[in-house]
Specification:
The structure holds two protein chains of two kinds. By secondary structure, chain A is of the alpha+beta class. Chain A is built from five helices and twelve strands. A six-stranded antiparallel barrel of chain A has the order 1-2-5-4-3-12. In chain A, β10 and β11 form a beta hairpin. The chains are: A alpha+beta, B mainly alpha. At the A-B interface, α2 and α3 of A face α3, α4 and α5 of B.
Amino acid sequence: MRNLIRFILKYNFIILFIVFETIALLLVFQRNNYQQAFAFNLSRNIGGYVNSRIFSLRHYLELHETNRALLKENERLRNSLLSSYKLKIPAAAEVEFDSAWVQQYNFISAKVIANSVNKQNNFMSIDKGRIHGVKPDMGVISGEGVVGIVAGVSDNFSTIIPVLNIDLRISSSLKNTGYFGSLYWDGKDPKTAIMEDIPHHVTLNPGDSVVTSGYSAIFPEGIMIGTVTDYDFEGGNFYTITVNLATDFRKLNYAYVIENRFREELIELENVSGHD
Amino acid sequence: MIKVLPRNILRIFVLVAFQVFILNNIQFSGFVNPYLYVLFILLLPFETPGWLLLSLGFVLGLTIDIFSNTPGLHASATVFMAFLRPLVLDFFAPREGYVTGTYPRIYYYGFGWFFQYSAILILAHHLFLFYIEVFRLSDFMLTLYRVILSTIFTLFLVMISQYFIYRR
């Protein structure tokens, strides 16, 4: 016993180092499931509060840019309004659709309060949380395109895993041919991502749009992700496609959280059929 | 000696605030991340006991982690750096040893000494940090490139800070 104490006293520096290093590395690698990533809600709340203060300055400086992006988005939305169209076939006007439609996707607008693009596992925080109806696993988009997926929520803030995080994969498809694959970030350039699983008989052209496939019940179908800039195939039967991301993550100030009102129903159904 | 404690407490607050408010918001081309907060470990007095050094490294790293959403990452790198500090100090010790009442500063031990001492520790910290963050060897050279660029930038800020703020 005395020898043990003497040993600990003699090597206390190294032992303490090992203890601290183990705790820290456990924290790092416990994160393989990103849901439980941030066990401490406290850090999210403190961090959220501080970051919202910092970002208010950035928001102010980038107001001009933000306005322009919002204006562009408004233009697009107005163009897709039903009132901007004129009926070509008069008979169709007799069909009433009012009660036949039900809203599937609900959008919650949010302000980005913390953001990074220069790490491997980038994260983002927004100023809407549980009390605003945000839940984990909801999709997040901007006016330009897909942003990411909600990872964790506190009462007033949420953290988002953006496309620029090597842990995230998004189900995506080519707009013109409909082939789908999975899109991920390779950790290099914050402007581009990689799309995989497209068989090599598909004709590809630079500039082709890559959109969400809608298979994951997180994003609606057809939300812009980016455009194809380059592609090649290394040996296998599948292309490796470089996608230029539509969202400029370095200038992101506003985002929308997407609530899919049929998500629970769909997941329940998939779970039931999965057990057969 | 009594002034050492408040001065270090003030320093840790200033450095964490500077890191969180300003440096974490600098996003040059996705490659350069300066981590000036390690300056705190560099400037601790020579007599700092080992347990305190490691504990401070852990607390400092964890504080940065809380604000940058990286649980454990900065803590592990800073503890590693704190662990290496006594070894590096021994290695670069002047022939007559470190004089009591002096601190690890350019003012006492010269530019060359401080530069080497900081460069080694910052490089160790950044190597550990970036490789743990990536945690794969496939992009070895790319990560190395990021480490070297960021080390240069952090070192630059550390040296500048010595001339502007801590003249003694």
